[in-house]
Amino acid sequence: ADFMKMPFSDNTFDAVYAIEATCHAPDPVGCYKEIYRVLKPGQCFAVYEWCITDHYDPNNATHKRIKDEIELGNGLPDIRSTRQCLQAVKDAGFEVIWDKDLAEDSPLPWYLPLDPSRFSLSSFRLTTVGRIITRNMVKVLEYVGLAPEGSQRVSSFLEKAAEGLVEGGKKEIFTPMYFFVVRKPLSE
């Protein structure tokens, strides 16, 4: 269903969660209001969200390029900051119980599996050599008609997105691990 207009009655659910989903909403307040509507009073909504961190500088051309690569390759509208997400959920009527960027305390960088400089047999396709092989295989498959036209283009922007994710993680300007729990008040 469309999370901007869910086909459920008011106060239907005992709990709601979203994992890397509401970041795709064109209007976060509208999305969170819709979740608020279907959640029973006093119950919780937990979210694991992709966000820009406080380290992001909108006047920095490198930061802007990284953000653009992540948005394009992952089908995202303007990625919101952690502060914007938290404000949007408050504007929708929720009470914030807890929020944290879980990437900050992670013992391993979240982007490690996507990092092409790290060699591993299980993630060979993500290494520089693996990406070159993949790129050429997609090119051949598209040329002989086994892959649809445009596959090279899609493969290319997905590769760029992965590069943006790694660079965004290394510069700490992007997190895919912003987590918050909020509650719908018992009375409105």
Automatic annotation (TrEMBL):
Gene3D superfamilies in the record, alphabetically? Answer: Vaccinia Virus protein VP39 (3.40.50.150)
Q: Which GO terms describe its molecular function?
A: sterol 24-C-methyltransferase activity
Which E.C. number(s) belong to this protein?
Answer: 2.1.1.-
Superkingdom of origin: Eukaryota
Q: Does the keyword Ligase apply?
A: no
Where the record annotates domain SAM-dependent methyltransferase Erg6/SMT-type, the positions are 1-185
Pathway, per Swiss-Prot/TrEMBL? Steroid biosynthesis; sterol biosynthesis
Q: Which GO terms describe its cellular component?
A: endoplasmic reticulum
> Mind listing the GO biological process terms from this record?
methylation; sterol biosynthetic process
Q: Which Pfam families match?
A: Methyltransf_11, Sterol_MT_C
Q: Which UniProt keywords apply?
A: Lipid biosynthesis, Lipid metabolism, Methyltransferase, S-adenosyl-L-methionine, Steroid biosynthesis, Steroid metabolism, Sterol biosynthesis, Sterol metabolism, Transferase
InterPro entries from the UniProt entry: Erg6_SMT_methyltransf, Methyltransf_11, MeTrfase_SMT, SAM-dependent_MTases_sf, Sterol_MeTrfase_C
Q: Which family does it belong to?
A: Belongs to the class I-like SAM-binding methyltransferase superfamily. Erg6/SMT family.
Which PANTHER family did the record assign? HYPOTHETICAL LOC100005854 (PTHR44068:SF1), ZGC:194242 (PTHR44068)
Q: Write the protein's name.
A: Methyltransferase
The organism is Aegilops tauschii subsp. strangulata
